[in-house]
Amino acid sequence: MLNIQIRGFLAKMSIFPITREEKDVLLDNIRDTKMTLSEILKNTNNNGFDKSFELSFPMVTHDSEIIITSFAEHDYYNDGYSFFREQLDLLTDKASDYNGIVIDDYGLINKSIHYGCSFEADLNGYNYQTFNEDKIDIETIKIPVLDKTFIKNIFYSNQKLENTSRSKIQHVKNKSILFKKINEINKKFIENSENSKFEIITYSESVV
Which of 124, 110, 102 minimizes the C-alpha distance to 37? Predict the structure, then answer.
């Protein structure tokens, strides 16, 4: 059995389409209370917005790495043999743009950043002797307003790996972004980074 881990940052995001009036209320609150955008959203627990798109993706950075350990089948009690370690951005494909969200005018992103094991999967029927690096396929996406690359899916030998979601991460940072969509022709949140333009109105980040 192979245990596959991604070590690095994990982004958990709530993305809200908001109206001009909601944008104005947020800016008034920032001015009147002298609080940051992150502080206001934390105090209100994101209440008052109709809906949000919830996303959670491992982030691709220069420090992220993939570690693969070989175990006897279903045996987690020995140390295993960690035989493969590689910088993540050397293995990822060319990122495509994420187009699952529609923003008409204004948007709000509330993002929490975590560090540790951002992805973990078990792959039965393989070991360090049968492993083939060329069979790893890491599908990535970009959200241009964030200017970051994220892992959408990981495959081995065309088999999609399912995240076991074992809790091995630590919350390290919060970031909030209020932005305006300035491309009036295309109503998609992201269609491609050339045609979708955004103006960041204000943002804030804080260390946990």
Answer: 110
On whether the CB atoms of residues 118 and 7 are closer than 8 A, the answer is yes
pLDDT tens for each residue of 100-130: 778 888 999 999 999 999 999 999 999 999 9
Q: How far lies 50's CA from each of 19, 35, 173, 186, 200, in Å?
A: 10, 23, 25, 22, 21
Cα–Cα distance for residue pair 92/84, rounded to 1 Å: 16
189-204 pLDDT, tens digit per residue, is: 544 444 457 889 999 9
CA–CA separation, 203 vs 37, rounded Å? 7
Backbone angles phi, psi at 148, to 5 degrees: -135, 160
User: What does the alpha-carbon distance between residue 206 and residue 13 come to, in Å, rounded to a whole number?
Assistant: 15
User: Measuring CA to CA, how many Å separate 83 from each of 1, 69, 91, 137, 188?
Assistant: 13, 6, 16, 18, 43
Q: Strand (E) positions, the chain? A: 2-18, 53-58, 65-70, 81-87, 96-97, 106-123, 136-143, 148-156, 159-160, 169-181, 198-207
CA torsion sign for 168, 171, 172, 177 is positive
Q: What is the pTM of this model?
A: 0.85
Give the length of the chain: 208
d(CA 107, CA 94): 26
